[in-house]
From TrEMBL:
GO terms for biological process: nucleobase-containing small molecule metabolic process; pyrimidine-containing compound metabolic process. One of its GO terms (molecular function) is cytidine deaminase activity. Substrate binds at N47, L48, E49, N50, A51, S52, Y53. This is Cytidine deaminase. It holds the Pfam family dCMP_cyt_deam_1. Its cofactor is Zn(2+). The active site is at E60 (proton donor). It comes from Corynebacterium riegelii.
Length: 141
């Protein structure tokens, strides 16, 4: 979906919509996320669990997979987008921060900001400064 000037509140709302699609029968901890891409696209993801627990996948990484498959014809070495922001929701009123594995995957695509919600409202964090400083990425190779 292409949008212009989407607000953080709208992104959190769309993450809530995605959370309603979570498949989380084991943890019973549904998570929803949306990516705002630099091309204006907003891509949702939800967590997807499995009876073989270790195969479960987080909402954020499923959103990244959706962004990749939806990014149109391009070379294999270039995703064709960067991530302006990711909005994540878990338990109501409690901030749901991305796990370490998701931080590394989001970092691959230049994620700039993480938006979560706590009991006082929306909070925005700078990705590379606050969530994953001193990181390893494509330009480290
Ligand atoms: N989970 C996410 O989808 N994203 C997060 O940021 C934290 C954890 C999922 C994984 C698992 O399905 C459930 O939440 C409990 O850990």
């Amino acid at each position: 979906m292409a949008t212009s000037a989407v607000t953080d509140a709208q992104l959190i709302q769309q993450a809530r919509n995605a959370q309603a699609r979570a498949y989380a029968p084991y943890s019973k901890f549904p998570v929803g996320s949306v990516l705002l891409l630099d091309n204006g696209h907003v891509v949702p993801g939800c967590n997807l669990e499995n009876a073989s627990y270790g195969l479960s996948m987080c909402a954020e990484r499923n959103a990244v997979a959706g962004a990749i498959v939806g990014s149109g014809p391009r070379g294999v070495a270039d995703a064709g987008f960067t991530i302006e922001a990711v909005a994540i929701v878990g338990k109501p009123g409690e901030p749901c921060f991305p796990c370490g594995a998701c931080r590394q995957v989001l970092r691959e695509f230049g994620c700039k900001r993480v938006i979560v919600e706590d009991e006082e409202g929306l909070r925005s964090f700078k990705f590379s400064e606050e969530l994953l400083p001193y990181s390893f990425g494509p330009e480290s190779l």
